[in-house]
Amino acid sequence: MVTQHTDVLIIGAGLSGVGAACHLRREMPETTFTILEKRDTIGGTWDLFRYPGVRSDSDMYTLGYRFKPWPEQKAIADGPSILRYVKETAAEYDVERHIRYRHEVIAAEWSSDDAKWRVTAEHDGKKVEFTCNFLWSCSGYYDYENGYTPQFDGVEDFTGTVVHPQHWPSDLDYRGKRVIVIGSGATAVTLVPAMAMGDNAAEHVTMLQRSPTYIFTAPSQDPLANLLRKVLPEEAAYFLNRWRNILTQTGFYQLSRRRPQLVRRLLKRFTAKQLPPGYDVDRHFSPSYDPWDQRMCLVPDGDLFKAIRKGKVDIVTDHIDRFTEKGIRLRSGVELPADIIVTATGLKLLAFGGMTLAVDGKPVELSERMAYKGIMLSGVPNFAYILGYTNASWTLKADLACEYVCRVLRHMRDSGSKRCEPVPDPDVRPEPFIDLKSGYVLRSLDQLPKQGDRTPWRLRQNYLRDISALRHGRVADGVLTFSR
Ligand SMILES: Cc1cc2nc3c(=O)[nH]c(=O)nc-3n(C[C@H](O)[C@H](O)[C@H](O)COP(=O)(O)OP(=O)(O)OC[C@H]3O[C@@H](n4cnc5c(N)ncnc54)[C@H](O)[C@@H]3O)c2cc1C
C-alpha cells in the first residue's frame, strides 16, 4: 500500500473543507494539503439535500465566506446557488485538484514517535493510507447515510409514499396530491410552502407538528444590501452588509436571552399579523420554551404564512397515534388523509464523519474529551475540526476557526514545533457540548465531547468574543502546548 503524505489533511469538501483549503492557500501558501471527500462531488450539504425549495435560513452575507463576497441579489439563497458559490470559490483558489473523491476516512491514529497522523480511508472498496502532520476534520455534523426518523406504528399499512427529505426521490410527483409534512423545524417550514405553491403545487399540504417552533419572517432580498451593492465596490458593500447583519443578529440573540418574555410577545404579534384573523396562534406558533432555546426558523417573505392565508396549508399540532392505510391517525382521534407523507423529523448527529480516532494506540473516547475553543480536543495532538455556530451562521465560526488553525500552524513552523495539544485541566467542570435543547441535539449528547465551564474550554457562540479570542488572543496560551 502506497502511503501519501501532506502537511495537512482535510476531511470533507463541503462549505467548511473548501473554506479551510482557501484559508491555507491565502495564509500559508507553502503548506501542502489534500482533501479527502467520501462522496463524488463537492459541496456537502448543499449538494446532498434536493428537496423542493431547499435554501439557507441564514443570510448569505454571513453564511458566505469572509473573503469571498456573495455575488447574488437574494440574501436568503436556494441550495443550487449556494452550491455554485462553493464551487466558484474552490475554482478561484485552485482547490479542486487537491480533492480525492470517493475517499471515506474511517480511522486516524496519531503516533507520537513519528509526530504524524496515519489516516485510513476507503476508496472504491479498498483501504488507502495517508499520513499528515496535522489532521483537520471538516466533515459536518450529521450522518449522510441516514436521517432521523422516529418509530411510527403502522408505517407498513400506509399505501401512499413515505419520503425523508435527506433522500428526496428526483422523480417524486406531488402535483395535485395531498401531502403531510411531519415536523416543525427548518426543513419542514421550507418544504411546506414550496410544495403547496407554484406550478407543481400539491392539492393541499398539512404541516403536522408535535409542538410549535419560533418562526420569523425576513425579506429574501435585502433592499438596503442591494442598494449598497449597486453604489459601492463589491468588497466594501459585502463588508458593510455582513457587519450590519452580524450586529443585528447578535443584538437580537442577546435580547432573546435577556428578555425572553418581550421577544416572545414581539414574535407572537408579528406572526399573528401575517395570519388570517382568529387564527389560533397560541396553539400553532407559541412554543413552550424560550426564544433560542432551540434554533429559530426563518421564512423568506413570509412564504409559509402566505400559503396558510391562501388555504393551501394547514398546521396541525397534535401527536401521532399511528399511520393508517390512508394517512395518519392522531391521538385526538382525527385522521389526516394523505397520498405522500414527508418525515421532516431531522438529522442524526455524527461527530467527525464517523471516523475513529486513536492516540498512540489508545482509542479516543469522544465523550471523555473536552473541546478547546470549539476547535481542538483535549489530549488529541495536531487535530482540529470545524463546527459552526448554533445561534448564527455556520461560516462565521468556520472562518474564524480557519484563521485560528492557520495561526497555530504558523506558530508551529516559526517555533520549530512538531506537536501541539490542548492539555486538560481537572478543575474545569464539563458541560454539554451544544447548549440547544432541540431533540436532535439531546439525542446525541452522549456521543459528543464536552465543553468546559470557562474559557478557553467554553463555546461562546458569540462572534464578537470569538474575534478577540481566535484572531487576536495568544496562541501559546499555556493550555495549548507546543513541543518539538
Ligand atoms: C438543509 C440544511 C440547511 C442548512 N442551512 C443552514 C443555514 O442557513 N445557515 C447555517 O448556518 N447552517 C445551515 N445548515 C448547516 C450546514 O450544514 C452548514 O451551514 C454547512 O453547510 C456545513 O458545511 P460543512 O462543510 O461543515 O459540512 P457539510 O456540508 O456536511 O460537508 C461535509 C463534507 O464532509 C464529507 N464527509 C463526511 N464524513 C466524511 C468522511 N468520514 N470521510 C470523507 N468525507 C466525509 C461529506 O461527504 C461532505 O461533503 C444547514 C444544514 C442543512 C442540512
Q: Can you count the helices?
A: 13
Helix content: 25-40%
* Count of folded domains: 2
- In terms of quaternary structure, the protein is single chain
Overall morphology: globular
Ligand kinds = flavin-adenine dinucleotide
Identify the CATH homologous superfamily of the largest domain.
FAD/NAD(P)-binding domain
Mean residue pLDDT: 96
Instruction: Say what the CATH topology of the largest domain is.
Output: FAD/NAD(P)-binding domain
Number of strands: 27
Q: What is the C-level CATH assignment of the largest domain?
A: Alpha Beta
Report the structural category: alpha/beta
Radius of gyration: 23 Å
β-sheet strand percentage: 25-35%
Q: For the record, give the distance between the C-alpha atoms at the N and C termini, rounded to a whole number.
A: 29 Å
Largest sheet: 9 strands, mixed
- Which second-level CATH architecture of the largest domain applies? 3-Layer(bba) Sandwich
Indicate the low-confidence ranges by residue numbers: none
In short:
The chain is an alpha/beta fold and 484 residues long. Helix content is 29%, strand content 25%.
Architecture blueprint of SSEs:
Layout lengths: L2 E9 L3 H13 L5 E4 L8 H4 L11 H4 L15 H14 L6 E2 L2 E9 L4 E8 L2 E12 L4 E6 L13 E3 L14 E5 L3 H11 L7 E6 L5 E4 L4 H9 L2 H25 L1 H14 L7 H5 L11 E4 L2 H7 L3 E5 L2 E4 L3 E4 L4 E3 L2 E4 L3 E3 L6 E4 L2 E2 L7 E2 L3 E2 L5 E3 L8 H22 L3 E4 L7 E3 L6 H4 L7 E3 L10 H10 L7 E4 L1
Parallel strand pairs: 1-2, 1-6, 2-3, 4-19, 6-23, 8-17, 9-10, 9-17, 10-13, 11-12
Antiparallel strand pairs: 4-5, 5-6, 7-18, 14-15, 15-16, 19-20, 21-22, 24-27, 25-26
Helix pairs in contact: 1-11, 5-10, 6-7, 7-8, 11-13
The protein binds flavin-adenine dinucleotide.
